TrEMBL record:
It comes from the Bacteria. This is DoxX protein. Keywords: Membrane, Transmembrane, Transmembrane helix. The chain crosses the membrane at residues 7-25, 52-71, 78-95, 101-119.
Length: 132
């Protein structure tokens, strides 16, 4: 059972990482898009390219720690807070579900983030923290 749990948690961690990595890369590659997202969903208008680059760098550090299983309490918690903020800030999209179906994919990912945070001590496969 422990091996199955460890493998399941690793797969969840990798799945969440892939999504977070793409969102982070988008901040570097297409800062104009990121600026529009921050304006629409977070009410943060007028963020310049250098601010978005700093945010992208910080997010990249967090997601790399997360995928490595390092500082699990903090990195898993930060991922959970980032994704919860993203999911909840999109509340208006859920009011028109059939025109925004992809937004509903955020909920299973949020559940995965919660599960990973709650089970972080059991997430030992390929985890830096488990080697200490």
């Amino acid at each position: 059972m422990e091996k199955k749990l460890a493998l399941s948690l690793l797969l969840l961690r990798l799945g969440v990482f892939i999504v977070m990595l793409m969102w982070t890369l988008d901040k570097f590659i297409n800062p104009a898009h990121t600026g529009k997202v921050f304006a629409k969903f977070y009410g943060l208008e007028g963020l310049d390219g250098s601010t978005l680059t700093v945010l992208a760098c910080l997010q990249l550090i967090v997601i790399l720690a997360f995928v490595a299983g390092a500082l699990r309490r903090y990195s898993y918690g930060a991922i959970l807070l980032m994704h919860a903020g993203s999911t909840l800030s999109s509340w208006q999209q859920y009011l028109d579900p059939f025109n925004h179906l992809l937004f509903f994919a955020a909920w299973p990912m949020l559940a995965a983030c919660i599960a990973l945070y709650l089970l972080r001590d059991q997430d030992t496969l390929l985890s830096i923290d488990s080697r200490r």
